[in-house]
Amino acid sequence: MRDIHHFIDGQSFTGASGRFSDVFNPNTGEVQARVQLSSEGEVDKAVQSAARAFEEWSQVNPQRRARVMFEFKRLVERDMNQLAELLSSEHGKVIADAKGDIQRGLEVIEFSCGAPHALKGEYTFGAGPGIDVYSMRQPLGVCAGITPFNFPAMIPMWMFGTAIVSGNTFVLKPSERDPSVPVKLAELFMEAGAPKGVLNVVHGDKTAVDAILTHPLIQAASFVGSSDIAHYVYSTGTAHGKRVQAFGGAKNHGIVLPDADMTQTVKDLAGAAFGSAGERCMALPVVVPVGQKTADELRERLVAEIATLRVGVSTDPDAHYGPVVTAAHKARVTGWIDKAIEEGSELVVDGRGFQLQGHEKGFFIGPTLLDKVNTGMESYKEEIFGPVLQIVRAETFEEAVSLPSKHQYGNGVAIFTRDGRAARDFATRVHVGMVGINVPIPVPVAYHTFGGWKRSGFGDINQHGMEGVRFWTKTKTVTARWPESDLEGGAPQDSAFIIPTMA
């Protein structure tokens, strides 16, 4: 049985907690490895390593830090196939999707390579008589990231890429469900030229999370996961004086207007709802057709499209998606389907009994379609996080706008239409953090920012882009006056006993 260790102070580290968690192969249902779960002691060891490394790393100029990022990008691209296969074997997403996971993380690394520009401050010459004012961005110190199972490469790189290139050092606690890729990324970071201790990885459960949130040397923490835990992370971390961004769950809606390109829309909905087995915070699990005719046509076309989908093992190049991550998660998703039916939803396509020949113990769920869903149902209110698409019918455009706006989550939303005026009005008015117009999964590019509203996000600053730079740095503003020298015949000025002005 393979054991997965921590990565601390530039090397593999065997913890002493004696606690382990099983890592499954979702395709077969078998345990393929054990991951060590840390105690407070392992977390502290990682933090102390990061604190020592910070003294040197924070003084490295941004251009040299960026060069490490350039090399890290090259190494990840070199090992793309190996990393994707490893990621797929623990998560269950198909190889092409695993490569996409890695590539979207690399896009933030590419943005981080521009740190010399992104970290520039502002300068005003002659703000007053002989006075200049300038600002500088400085790193916070030891920072931390707590990341979910659904994107074991992308989200860690979203966090540590911007944080480290800004001069911080980092402690990463990835999900214990698929922990191997984060360790490999840390090893590649060392190979890229980062000093030991700049990036550490500790595995664990709530014990590790609490140790991170309460450790006095950790200055900032970023989290992605469920909303209840996100709220806990935010409130606990900020109570201990940390800067915290915590991103939670989602229930993203796709609004389909009568003039939409229905052929393209149906393909987009199928990919967004069922891709990666629906295990994405930016999946699109709710579709809102406007008008009876639109709803009936959409339903008919979705049934036909679902029939073409191939569910297979994660290594099947023809599979559209693979298994969910664990047996417990499979039970949770099928439980929500049961609940939706009990609440009065109409089951159109049932994926609960799906089995893959030769992999009957794998964690597979077929695509599921539910119609006649309403806003009073718990299955509508909560995040299912599986290959389940719910149809909520709307009579009018105004009703369609109100549905995602009133929902407890506000991560992403999409509208499908040929009407530019309607799309513009929708994008302006809808109360959701990220909007797609004929784009089903509106994850922004790396040089913009990612973040949801309401219970989808806690904290004031979003991930990556310049928002990420602002989160992982603090601004220092300097007001400087250079007195005239004796060579210039200058005389000292009187002391100021009032607040200075620039008059």
Please tally the β strands and state the result: 23
Shape: globular
Q: Give the strand line-up of the largest sheet.
A: 15-16-17-14-13-19-20
So, CATH architecture of the largest domain?
3-Layer(aba) Sandwich
Q: How much of the polypeptide forms β-strand, as a percent range?
A: 15-25%
Computed Rg: 25 Å
CATH topology of the largest domain: Aldehyde Dehydrogenase, Chain A, domain 1
What structural category do the secondary elements indicate?
alpha/beta
Helix content: 25-40%
Low-confidence stretches: none
CATH class of the largest domain: Alpha Beta
Largest sheet: 7 strands, mixed
The number of helical segments is: 16
CATH superfamily of the largest domain: Aldehyde Dehydrogenase, Chain A, domain 1
Rounded average pLDDT: 95
Straight-line distance between termini: 74 Å
Describe this structure in words.
The chain has 503 residues and is of the alpha/beta class. It has 2 domains: 2-248 and 456-477, 3-Layer(aba) Sandwich (Aldehyde Dehydrogenase, Chain A, domain 1), CATH 3.40.605.10; 253-437, Aldehyde Dehydrogenase, Chain A, domain 2. 38% of the residues lie in helices and 21% in strands. The chain has 16 helices and 23 strands. The chain has helices at 40-57, 62-78, 80-91, 95-112, 115-118, 154-165, 180-191, 206-214, 227-239, 262-274, 292-306, 327-342, 378-381, 397-406, 420-429, 465-471, and strands spanning 2-4, 6-8, 11-13, 19-25, 30-37, 123-128, 131-139, 142-146, 169-173, 199-201, 218-224, 243-247, 253-256, 286-289, 346-349, 368-371, 388-391, 409-410, 412-416, 434-437, 453-454, 457-458, 473-481. Strand 16, helix 13 and strand 17 form a beta-alpha-beta unit. Helix 2 packs antiparallel against helix 4, helix 4 packs parallel to helix 6 and helix 10 (262-274) packs across helix 11 (292-306). The relative contact order is 0.14.
